[in-house]
Amino acid sequence: MDQTYKPTPSAPIIRLMVLETDKPHPDTYSERGSFGRIIHSHFAKAGRAHRPPLGVETDQVFVVSEQGGRVPTVQEFDGFDGLLITGSMYDAHGNNQWILDLLELLRALWIKRPEFHFVGVCFGHQLLARLLGGSVGPTPSQDWELGHCRIMLTPVGRRLFGTREDHVHLHQMHQDQVLTLPTSASAGHELLTADTEVLCWGRSEHTPVQGLYIPDRLFTTQAHLAFDEDMVKRQIQMRVDRGGIKDLEHAGQAAETAHLEHDGVEVAKAILRLFMDDKDEPS
Fold it and tell me: Among 130, 238, 248, 262, whose Cα sits 20 to 30 Å from the Cα of 122?
């Protein structure tokens, strides 16, 4: 279902296809809808806060075929400016058939649509790193990064977010991470030219690669942009109930930080600028 926010008739409109790789907690779904609808609401808010305002149109496809979803065709992205891959409980380094099919789709879009933009959140961040030849897997310590987290910004990150601060805060919920940055050598010449550098915009003590950036092409974030307090608590509990998170003390401490303010709108604004005349300059 297409969703639209148009601040003014003359506002630039960004059309984004959201590839849903999981389903939210049932209570979150009843209150806020699917991850695609949650992403739409968040980016519409960021579009309103952007200067000048930006309109956002989204559509979404649930791609987990083993749960009744489907991976779309390349042709279904006609008319869209880019895509966003959501977070998921699945492993981005896994070889589920739908993950392999999704990688094939992403590769085809990357090669056939040089003007197309790629955005990934958590699982999506890791999957796009995998696409470009980066290594993805569990953190060497095997522990989780959970809850409200300070991310230290690289110079690229400070430019992207238009801040003189050396950090931003976002909510985290992951054990896997990007272990090595993609390079033109790891991606192959079909995907990245020899002079293309995949930049890292932030790091934390737990996760050295918090996000990837290629000007006018790619923007990923390991952390979640659109989680609110209830979502954080519910998603943590889902992982505890399913046995993914075994350190209950850590889970409880993380849940206690769910109410803290974070910079998800500022990061979303920076992502929207990827679709404009992307010069690393904030608006």
Answer: 248
In degrees, rounded to 5, the angle at the alpha carbon of residue 120 between the alpha carbons of residues 174 and 193 is 120
230-270 tens-digit pLDDT: 888 888 888 888 888 888 888 788 888 988 889 999 999 99
**pLDDT tens for residues 143-162?**
998 889 999 999 999 999 98
- Going along the chain from its start, the domains and CATH numbers come out as 3-137+175-227+263-274 (3.40.50)
211-215 CB contacts, 8 Å cutoff, 24+ apart: 211/125, 211/157, 212/120, 212/125, 212/128, 212/129, 212/134, 212/178, 212/181, 212/182, 213/156, 213/160, 215/278, 215/279, 215/280
CB 63 within 8 A of CB 73: no
Distance CA 5, CA 39 (A): 13
